[in-house]
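Q: I'm teaching a short session on how sequence maps to structure, and I want students to see two examples side by side rather than one. Could you give me a first protein with its sequence written out and its structure tokens following it? Keep the formatting plain so it prints cleanly on a handout.
A: Of course. Example one:
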Amino acid sequence: MWPWSSRSPSATVTCLACGDGISRSAAREYDKYGNQWDRRDKEFEHLCPTCHNELCHQPRDELEDILVELQAGEEETETFLASYLATVEDRYGRVEEES
């Protein structure tokens, strides 16, 4: 089970998108593996309501797996984006920009 201090609604957590501190009760849980219902031995990251509302809430099949596979956040931005684009094009075809 989780320690009471980290699960307490009055505890403060940090929004992973903007870095603001927010009360645990107002925060939205984010599970980078996409399965928030499997809670065993997990620690969730959090989003403030504003950042959560700005997210795209469309299905993201395989997105999280690709991000983990490509070690998102561990490479320089340009290197990561080049790898991401190459991976997506290899698996799903060429990405076309809308005009």
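Q: Perfect. Now a second example for contrast.
A: Example two:
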Amino acid sequence: MKGGISVEVFGQEALISLLSHLFFITVTWWTLQAVRLEVIFKPNRIIQARVFYILITIAIGSLVSNFFLDYLRWSRQLPFLL
């Protein structure tokens, strides 16, 4: 593409974003295993507890990944400051 961002750059950014989200969601899941969240759930609510773990993992992992990706994007834009 002339004078713009090439399609390859969009593909690379998509791949980095996917890998970043997967990485941080995995790290969040691993980290949450050390927390005893089951004490806040009612007895015999196993399915709801598992869904909660999954949702909280995705939420925290996505937030951390978005922070990392924003920081990376902003650092790439710094040369255009001047």
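Q: What should students look for in example two?
A: Point them to this: Helices lie at 7-32, 46-77. Also worth mentioning: The two ends are 25 Å apart (CA to CA).
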